[in-house]
Amino acid sequence: MFKTITVTLYERIESGRDAFNAPEYTEPPVSVPGVLAAPASSEAIVTDMQLHGKRLAYELYIPKGDTHDWRDCRVDFFGQGFRVYDLPKEYIEGNVPGAWNKIVKVEKYE
């Protein structure tokens, strides 16, 4: 059986516009249970550094049925802060065995 964790997601929600008509956001915390956190392999770290200029720390496997927007969000787990980068990979729920159908990449965020 897999050991899952609860991740605190700070989902970005547009709350208004500033004086220059640029969007302003709030980031209310949301707890997402049942997430798998897998450390990145050294090969994946090098590949993502070359492609995105980001240092991959973990890949998070999100449970089926999750409806949160994970793009460019902050997440906290293991007592540390991370930021999601790249677009989440989402698979068709019925075609994926197990309880997870979405993968997001995170880098360390200080």
Radius of gyration over C-alpha positions, nearest whole angstrom? 15 Å
Question: What percentage of residues falls in helices of 4 or more residues?
Answer: 10-25%
> What does the main sheet amount to?
6 strands, antiparallel, barrel
Class inferred from helices and paired strands: mainly beta
Kindly report the spatial arrangement of strands forming the biggest sheet.
1-4-5-8-7-6
What's the order of the H and E elements? EEEEHEEEE
User: Strand portion, in percent?
Assistant: over 45%
The whole-number mean of residue pLDDT values reads 92
What would the principal axes of the Cα set say about the shape? globular
CATH architecture: Beta Barrel
CATH topology: Thrombin, subunit H
Contiguous runs where pLDDT drops below 50 for at least 5 residues? none
User: How many structural domains in the coordinates?
Assistant: 1
Per DSSP E runs of 2 or more residues, the count of β-strands stands at 8
What's the end-to-end separation, in Å?
A: 32 Å
Q: What would CATH call the class?
A: Mainly Beta
Tell me what you see in this structure:
10% of the residues lie in helices and 53% in strands. With 110 residues, the protein is mostly beta strands. It has a single domain, classed as Thrombin, subunit H (Beta Barrel). β6 and β7 form a beta hairpin. The protein is globular. It starts with a strand and ends with a strand. The mean pLDDT is 92.
